[in-house]
Amino acid sequence: MPITDKIAAAKKIGEFLQAVISNGGFKLKYRITVDPPIAGNREWEHPEILVEFAGPDSALLLERGGELLRSFELLGTEILRLQGNEHEKIWFDCKNFRALRIEELQMAARAAAEKVRRSGEPYRFASMSSRERRIVHLALREEKDLRTESDGEGGKRSVVVYPGSYKTAARPERRTIP
Q1: Domains 6-95 and 101-163 share a fold
Q2: What's residue 164's pLDDT?
Q3: What is the pTM of this model?
């Protein structure tokens, strides 16, 4: 479901960021683009709103794997009341962090594929966000001799790369108690 009024949504995000940046004492500037053109690695995702940061405190956003940047983005999705499957509609970026992370995940997927081919054993990635899992799945989608699955619950979900012929144990049915 698209964001119905993207200009109003961008304005809400701008108001939020202005308050956080000024009250937090950050030395950051940001640019909000509605319906940004698809370029480079953005072919993997199609955000409706792109927020790009720059400034002396950019490094703070990118510390610990971009934790603060992702936190700002999560708050942006909450402000817009986006559902979990709509989180890809907004993208926060700084110093091309997102494209570099996509490239890193693609390289890791290729390395995992080679390891699975050599060993014949599944490879489990560390837990990652749904966006990052999607990138791994897409990076390996053309590999006919392999298959990928997401496994785990909540924040512990990860991607597992299997040889194509590998048989996984049947998962027990989930039953709800009335």
Answers
A1: no
A2: 85
A3: 0.73
